[in-house]
Amino acid sequence: MRLIRHPVTAVIAFLLMAAAVALDAGEPAPGKSAPAGMVSVPAGIYRPLFRGPDDLREVPVKALWLEEAPVTNTDFLEFVRQNPQWRRSRVARLFADSGYLRHWAGDLDPGPGATDLQPVVDVSWFAAKAYATWKGRRLLTTAEWELAASIGPDHRAGTNDPGFLRAIQHWYVTPTPAVLPVVKTRRPNLDGVHDLHGLIWEWTADFNSALVSGDARGDTGLDRQLFCGAGSLGATDRSNFPAFMRFGFRSSLKASYTLPNLGFRCALDVPVTPVASVTLTPSPAP
Which of 30, 160, 195, 261 is the most buried (most CB within 10 A)? Predict the structure, then answer.
């Protein structure tokens, strides 16, 4: 079998091979729309607040389907009905601390303190992950959450909108109300996602990717530039105070923790349609 030697034929073959490599990766399935209650979030780039050990400055994020709002008490009630091991009286302490669903009236009764359309809170990471699996979905990664949350109601680059950042910062310094508002009462972002800010904090799949061990001030093997006033020195955006708050909050969590202002939402990967590779048949030299 001879190699392709004609220059024009060789160029065409090269382009076809390049196309085949690109097509093998798949492309969004035509005609597919997000399931009910979910919206499409386009692919983008997440820039971590702090660079990791690999000096990673940018994280590519694929397109995904994201639930419009956090999981509600009604949603979670159906989950515990069908999964008794996650009821308040039966959950293992390994998977949730003593505050698990503390605001509910009973195992299967959210009660007046947890209305149907309020976001479910006081749930551990383990419980959130189990719910997502039961729904055939998953938790967002931190990169996915941060990318979706960087989009404002008026500008896609919300982090460049001082008003957007001030509103988030104001919420972070405001005490959690005794009675949480219901979901979807605020304006969504430009992709149609509600309540990424201003209602509750949310678990992410890899919330502890920034976790440090022990008392950071005493651990000699840790990067001390991450703490106290020096923490901003290595940051990619020193003006983004809300991002510092989220970084610190996530770093303080353990998977069994439950908090009255911490809930979650689910995501799905966008299906892709694989395209068959182009098979090249070498032609004889002219």
Answer: 195
